[in-house]
Amino acid sequence: MTLLFRTMALGLFLSGVSLTAQAEDATPLTATAASESLTAEEQAFATLLTGADLVGTFTVDGHEGAPKQDRYTITKANKVKGNTWAIHARIKYGEADITVPVAVKIDWAGKTPVLSVADLKIPGLGSEFGSSILFQGNRYAGTWEHGKVGGHMWGRIERTPEAKPATK
Question: What is the pTM of this model?
Answer without folding.
Answer: 0.76
